């Protein structure tokens, strides 16, 4: 095969009063992987390898080279954002002084442990190298349970900057810094100016957006700098960031509506300064900063409407385990929390989180977090609530090891004097934008008495970089600077890429009584479109594949009758799908399933929202296979009857689970013989807080008659269960439910008639995962 | 009381091209504690407070002040070494930029937790302060079991230099660095140019000479510098130095005949460079470097005749506990051992020390050291033996996690090829002094192939500071520099103090047959003198106090008959005493004791050496009270008969014990009814390796007839027991001994006639102490 190389030689002349003029630089355009490999092999310091615009499919690039500080070797897109890396692809770097720039990873996944990796194979480590201005979007493994990390840091002095990364739904952190070995610790990596876009809930552990180190390398230092990044909807698990080595810095990051926390997990001596945590009323899972171990300085941070509880609370200072094993919870000691502001958060300060002395009998000794924080200081902080908070400070154990000094609380019309840790007062705060409130000055209560702790002279500036020479309680010391603050989108991600999606009006397909037309319309529709059933009866012979966000609705309760004789689902749910059903009747046979995700390749979650509908006669309403995950599963104002089985989400093990939010409201279940609900989590890992099952205002009649273990609603291992205001009548079971009291399983106002009882076990004996 | 202050104003004019001339300095002579306190209260930067020559008794000095970098506040002796601090005294420092100089602590002890302390009370911490040119000698607590530390470091940037410290025999480290709290961690303390003189064996844990931090602060950094110190006979326990925090440095220290190791215990990333370990043939307890945890660099060290085993071996790299609790054993990872030299050591390299998988059934999971070292490198080292060593490398578990490169072994006439970790070769080494051997150059085997590991460019010099530009395997790369090396006594301790003791010839007292004269001569004798019994019979009515090193001998087996009717000892042993008996007969009654230390105030050890003698008729030969300790207890060629009890050393608990070296050789025990030997250690802490009981070539006849638990020689909890070549005849017991197989308890060639058996329990169930 004849190879054609396009060689562009460009001569630069840089004039500078300090530097010698830059020598010639070779810029080499390559059009395929062979050319690319060839040039990589030949590359000399200063060379620039340019990938031609277009789609590069199945390219597994091992970029090895040795540039120098002033003459790095660069691998870049011809036009940033016009070079698409697709299929089974990755780029791994090894050597010294390399730059990768402008690539867009999409429509595929890495066949390796990672997409971007600062090491090739076992020992060709990269140093002083940088990946910049790249995008990775939905480049997720086909099997959700297969682990990878999209970005693996090894070596020292490497950088990821101005990248956009979103849509990882499989097992494994989005970005991981490895510190196993002297070549990789004290590494001073820079993770700066990136946009970490949405990462969906994973349903289980190992879904952090960033993780630095692990428990086994937690004695090593990182000096990793994570600054000026934007995190949006990073909902993978309870930890957005898991900091597990020492001396790392998190500064000037914005966490926007992310259902997790910045967690100082195993690392010590972390700097957490001038970060912004933006929550809202739409979720109780947005988190703040969770603290374990020693010597952290948490200063100048701003929290708005963070309402997460306990592990996800705005400031969660944990209890430790005495003489903790390496992978559990070191006692909190010697931390400083100063000059932070919480606005409209719920119970923002929680001290001794994770205290579990009551579990002494069901957990081993080395799981009991009985050591409260000590030798710590919380000073000069501000809590401001437009509506009063009943408990702005939650004491889970003993807070006497913490010195509280000059913390001001404006709790609206209700002072909070319990524990004596606040100065209650009225503060004038002015709204600057949707989430930012700043105090106006002068306000003597904020400036007249400021506690000066050990080494507080090191806190020189406030949240927005204003000098603290004119000092104030809270993260903002100067109103004028705060008033001028806007989130600068140019700071985050590549300049050529925008994460904003255009919104178009949905198209409405009017579908007459013809099963094939229904199937065809669904296939033709774009995500967001609506299928409106205009007739009464639709006979369907084969499964309908749902691959996008589709609404099927009718005005007159149209019936969809499923005739396929096989054990097959009426609706086959694909990754990223969302099926909305409104006012329809689904009728099936007792070997069929109403809904079922794919058996394999469920790379991302599916969602189902059923309202005002009837489902009858099926073998299963839903049966989740292993590896599938539904983020939202919702039944409202609907009737489910005459089915062998109900909703079965019980195929996982080892801490994973099949669904996050399962909601049943105003429904009636009648004559469902088994598994009315079977929502199961095998194995316990507290780093995830799910799933969530809510059953309200619903009725269950004549259900569970073949239930072998005698439990109607099976919820084993699920963390949040709420059974409220339901009626259970004539269900021949021993237990309507067996709840886990210690893990937010609650029941109230239920009526039980001839239906067994609801039992609460405060502590359940757990299979521990680590 | 009228106070007279002596004010000497001295004007200095310092000429310097960079600094402004120094202002006036006040030098204030004080004569008593009131004057001293008064001046301390008034002291201004630059002031010098001078303690008048003489004895300062019961002075508890709290030296608080705030000097500045260029104008410290100094508290010094009028003449260094002529100011004696005695009685119940201490000096504690608080504030900034203080200097203490030239004090001599003796004849007393601190009533506090410490003698020198860089903190006053709870929170007046000292920073940037220095204690220099002081001596602390035998300033030890009256009760050996009462804990103190002689020197307590708090704060940051404090220094102890040119001090001499010896004779601590009570519980507690000689010097401890505390890192509990941000004021005290990352402290950069300097412990340099000190002379750590003899510290006797303590018989239990907590007798390190230096300890930095503890397990609970082991995540914090120290940056403590321990350099250019001399350690002589620091025998307190198995750890001379216990390094428990991160980033500390041990450089250019000399460890001379010290029965312990430099132990990298909980800390990580320690630098151990260019230290010299000098042992000898006279002890098998001299140790080297023991390694736990991560990231240590052990380079350029020199070891001569270090023959300690396992925990004390010249290089002991330990096995860790998987996910170790904070206070146990982290796995060894990422260490580098390069360019070191071992000359005439015994089994110098031991990998996986402490592996105790066999104890799985008697110890909890978190005690099992099953994790071998990983990701480590041992390169460019030299082992040289004048006589071949059967096992220069001992593999306790699995050494595959270590990369061995270019290590050269000259094992005399015997190559060692097992494991393949050495290049066997003949090296030319030339003796420079009693302990130093250096290779002559050129020797291609040492210079032609040197492994260049990651960051080896940082190892710029060799043991004696010669540049490694002309590089070589081993710690010495240049013969000429090595040849010129002498230990420079001026480097260590105060210039006004010498630790060398003059030796005088002993005086011999000829003592005729008069008990009172015997007592009087003993009282008059100086330490080292000899009492010679010239007649046959000495009747003694009262206990004889032994307060020094005394020999009592006779040529014709003189009898000493003890007539006191009370339950009292013939010889009352005091601290620091050593009683030698040669060819005497001691006769007592069955409520008396032949030997007994004081019940209280046994601040230091006593020693007894009995040979060619007979002891008969006593209630006890020896009964050790709690708090007493005998370092050497020796019976040789002697007969012990007709006693109710033999040697009882069983009053301690919690890991302490009453004796270190107990030796019985060529003796006969006849009709000793109970406790022929009862040597007990309650509770197990592996950080000490004792006691040591050796019974050889001896005979036991008709003993143990009232032994309640049926064991003749009780050795419960004792680590080293050797029963060899003894005869046991007609002793009505079930067991002659019950030995602890796993802990170096051995028996061989014993004859047992009508005397029960010797049982070996490989594992004993232990009470763990921590």
TrEMBL record, chains A, B:
Keywords: Lyase, Signal. This is Alginate lyase. Residues 183-206 are annotated as: Disordered. One of its GO terms (molecular function) is lyase activity. It holds the Pfam family Chondroitinas_B. Transmembrane segments: none annotated. InterPro entries: Pectin_lyas_fold, Pectin_lyase_fold/virulence, PL-6. It comes from Seonamhaeicola maritimus. Residues 1-22 form the signal peptide.
């Amino acid at each position: 095969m004849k190879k054609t190389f396009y060689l562009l030689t460009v001569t630069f002349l840089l004039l500078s009063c300090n530097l010698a003029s830059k020598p010639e630089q070779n810029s080499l355009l390559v059009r395929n992987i062979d050319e690319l490999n060839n040039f990589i092999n030949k590359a000399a310091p200063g060379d620039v390898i340019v990938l031609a615009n277009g789609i590069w499919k199945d390219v597994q690039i091992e970029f090895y080279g040795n540039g120098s500080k002033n003459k790095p070797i660069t691998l870049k897109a011809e036009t940033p954002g016009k070079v698409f890396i697709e299929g089974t692809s990755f780029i791994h770097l090894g050597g010294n002084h390399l730059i990768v720039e402008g690539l867009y990873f999409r429509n595929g996944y890495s066949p390796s442990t990672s997409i971007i990796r600062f090491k090739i194979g076992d020992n060709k480590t990269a140093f002083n190298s940088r990946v910049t201005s790249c995008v990775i979007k939905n480049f997720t493994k086909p099997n959700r349970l297969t682990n990878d990390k999209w970005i693996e840091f090894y070596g020292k002095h490497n950088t990821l900057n101005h990248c956009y990364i979103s849509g990882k739904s499989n097992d494994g952190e989005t970005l991981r810094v490895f510190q196993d070995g002297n070549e990789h610790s004290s590494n001073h990596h820079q993770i700066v100016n990136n946009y970490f876009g949405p990462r969906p809930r994973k349903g289980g552990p190992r879904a952090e957006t960033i993780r630095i180190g692990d428990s086994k390398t937690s004695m090593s230092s990182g000096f990793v700098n994570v600054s000026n990044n934007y995190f949006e909807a990073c909902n993978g698990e309870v930890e957005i960031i898991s900091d597990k080595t020492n001396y790392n810095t998190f500064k000037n990051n914005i966490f926007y509506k992310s259902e997790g926390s910045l967690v100082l997990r195993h690392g010590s001596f972390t700097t957490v300064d001038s970060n912004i945590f933006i929550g809202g009323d739409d979720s109780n899972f947005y988190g703040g900063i969770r603290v374990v171990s020693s010597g952290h300085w948490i200063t100048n941070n701003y929290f708005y409407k963070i309402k997460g509880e306990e592990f996800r609370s705005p400031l969660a200072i944990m209890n430790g385990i005495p003489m903790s094993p390496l992978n559990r919870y070191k006692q909190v000691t010697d931390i400083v929390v100063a000059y932070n502001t919480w606005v409209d958060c719920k119970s923002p300060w929680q001290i001794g989180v994770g205290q579990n002395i009551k579990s002494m009998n069901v957990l081993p000794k080395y799981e009991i977090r009985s050591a409260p924080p000590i030798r710590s200081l919380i000073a000069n902080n501000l809590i401001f609530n437009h509506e009063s908070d009943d408990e702005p400070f939650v004491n889970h154990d003993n807070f006497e090891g913490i010195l509280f000094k000059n913390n001001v609380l404006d709790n609206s019309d209700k002072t909070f004097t319990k524990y004596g840790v606040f100065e209650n007062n009225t503060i004038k705060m002015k709204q600057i934008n949707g989430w930012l409130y700043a105090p106006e000055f002068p306000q003597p209560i904020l400036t007249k008495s400021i506690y000066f702790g050990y080494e507080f002279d090191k806190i020189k500036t406030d949240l927005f970089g204003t000098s603290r020479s004119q000092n104030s309680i809270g993260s903002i010391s100067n109103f004028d600077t705060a008033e001028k603050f806007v989130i600068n989108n140019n700071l985050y991600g590549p300049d050529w890429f925008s994460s904003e999606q255009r919104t178009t009006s949905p198209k409405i397909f009017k579908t007459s009584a013809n099963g094939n037309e229904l199937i065809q319309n669904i296939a033709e529709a774009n995500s967001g479109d609506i299928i409106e059933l205009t007739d009464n009866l639709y006979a369907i012979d084969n499964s309908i594949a749902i691959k996008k966000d589709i609404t099927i609705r009718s005005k007159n309760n149209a019936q969809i009758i499923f005739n396929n004789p096989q054990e097959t689902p009426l609706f086959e749910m694909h990754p990223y799908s969302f099926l909305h059903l409104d006012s329809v009747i689904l009728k099936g046979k007792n070997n069929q399933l109403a809904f079922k995700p794919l058996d394999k390749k469920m790379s991302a979650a599916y969602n189902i929202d059923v309202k005002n509908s009837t489902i009858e006669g099926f073998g299963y309403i839903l049966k989740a296979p292993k590896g599938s995950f539904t983020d939202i599963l919702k039944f409202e104002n609907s009737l489910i009857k005459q089915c062998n089985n109900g909703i079965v989400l019980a195929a996982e093990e080892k801490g994973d689970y099949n669904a996050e939010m399962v909601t049943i409201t105003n429904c009636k279940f009648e004559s469902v013989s088994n598994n009315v609900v079977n929502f199961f989590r095998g194995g316990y890992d507290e780093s995830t807080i799910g799933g969530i099952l809510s059953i309200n205002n619903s009725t269950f009649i004549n259900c569970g008659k073949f239930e072998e273990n005698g439990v109607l609603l099976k919820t084993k291992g699920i963390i949040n269960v709420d059974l409220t205001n339901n009626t259970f009548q004539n269900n021949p079971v021993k237990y309507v439910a067996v709840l886990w009291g210690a893990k937010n399983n609650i029941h109230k106002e239920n009526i039980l008639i001839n239906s067994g009882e609801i039992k609460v076990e405060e502590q359940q004996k757990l299979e521990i995962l680590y």
